[in-house]
Design goal:
By secondary structure, the chain is mostly helical. The protein is built from six helices and five strands; from the N terminus they run E-E-E-H-H-H-E-H-H-H-E. It is found in: Cell membrane.
Length: 271
């Protein structure tokens, strides 16, 4: 008669273990019945008669799970800790280096700034063009007088013309700086806008605190970077300066705005 499946004394050991019999073959694992001391080494273990009740399998208690250390080796948060609440809906999310992803107030359009600059340059040109012609007139007269009957100027006349124009350019740069300072800085300090910005309905304000207006120092820094850069580098600086708002985020500032920490915004007329 075949043995029924169950736990039986291990026929291959004399240490008091039991081994699982599946009805056809012995299993690979052995257990020591709970409360059963191991027999004396070398003492044979008798097999139970066929059909007898198998020995009870020992009950194994699951070991408590080992605590998992927090990542990075930091201690766990204290009891009652909770993550900070999420920002309210619609609040601007911070960008790189703590800058907001969007400006917290409306910024003037790029087209309005360009048109305002064209108007201001035209007004400044009303003063500067006659001055430039007055400064260049003696050099132009000498050059025309040196042209021969064949209509070709001499080499000496060309060299004199280049020298005269270089000297006039230096004086004209100084006059241009003076005219632009007198035109722009007092208006920006008093009202925050020049005549061109008035026509387009925009104004200059401090980037971070609008209630104080522009000081003489802020307005002078803004003018110095814009006009000084154009005088030293030429038109290349002016082009880069006024193209800068196209890719500057979120304030859409020019280079001279960044130097003075200012922005250009729409001007709201008081009712």
């Amino acid at each position: 008669m075949a043995m029924t499946p169950g736990w039986y004394p291990d026929p291959f050991s004399s240490a008091g273990y039991v081994r699982w019999w599946d009805g056809a073959r012995w299993g690979a694992s052995v257990l020591l019945p709970e409360g059963t001391p191991p027999p004396v080494p070398g003492q044979p273990v008798a097999l139970p008669p066929p059909g007898s009740a198998p020995a009870a399998a020992p009950r194994q208690q699951a070991a408590p799970p080992a605590p998992v250390p927090p990542p990075g080796g930091y201690p766990p948060p204290p009891a009652g800790w909770a993550p900070p609440p999420a920002p309210p809906y619609g609040a601007p999310a911070p960008g790189r280096y703590g800058a907001p992803a969007e400006a917290p107030y409306e910024i003037a359009s790029y087209g309005s700034r360009v048109m305002a600059k064209i108007i201001d340059s035209f007004i400044e040109g009303i003063v500067l063009v006659p001055v430039a012609l007055w400064l260049l007139w003696p050099a132009l007269t000498r050059y025309l007088d040196a042209v021969g009957a064949d209509g070709m100027p001499t080499a000496e006349a060309v060299q004199q013309w280049v020298t005269d124009v270089a000297g006039v350019s230096l004086v004209l740069n100084v006059v241009t700086l003076l005219v632009t300072f007198v035109y722009e800085v007092p208006q920006n300090v008093r009202w925050g806008r020049t005549l061109g910005k008035r026509a387009l309905g925009i104004r200059v304000r401090p980037r971070d605190l609008d209630s104080v207006g522009l000081t003489w120092g802020t307005a002078s820094i803004r003018w110095a970077v814009e006009s000084g850069g154009a005088a030293l580098v030429g038109g290349f600086f002016t082009i880069i300066d006024y193209l800068w708002p196209l890719w500057d985020k979120p304030w859409r500032q020019t280079i001279h705005d960044k130097a003075a920490r200012t922005t250009v915004v729409p001007h709201r007329r008081q009712p």
